[in-house]
Amino acid sequence: MLLNVNSIPTLIGQAARDPALIMVSGIITFVAGLAIVRVHNFWKGGWFVVVTVLGWLFLVGGLARILFPSQLAAMAAGAFGAGVPQHTGFIIGEAIVFLVIGAFLSFKGFSRS
Questions:
Q1: Spatial contact of 54 and 48, defined as CB atoms under 8 Å apart
Q2: Interatomic CA distance for residues 55 and 63, integer angstroms
Q3: Which of 44, 48, 97, 103 is deepest in the core (most CB within 10 A)?
Q4: How many domains does the chain have?
Q5: Range of the domain at 76
Q6: How far apart are CA 16 and CA 71, in angstroms?
């Protein structure tokens, strides 16, 4: 996302208006969330809860995309209006948050303790 920050708004705008693509992404997200929740459903303290919460978010988000693809496409079209958002500050912030979460989970997952 950080390497292609200028093309991301156009890609998001095109993908968000396609109900079939929203449904396919929902199926993939739902299966990933189901796998995480099935294998890693720990509500104990510590960083394990982060993985569990992400799994449940994937599960619910994927289910919403599967059940309501046309409604979500209409909402996205309304949010984007006639044009594509040109402000990339939010995209850069989102990419940095994803990078930090991924680095944290990778560190915790591959460390010995």
A1: no
A2: 12
A3: 48
A4: 1
A5: 8-110
A6: 11
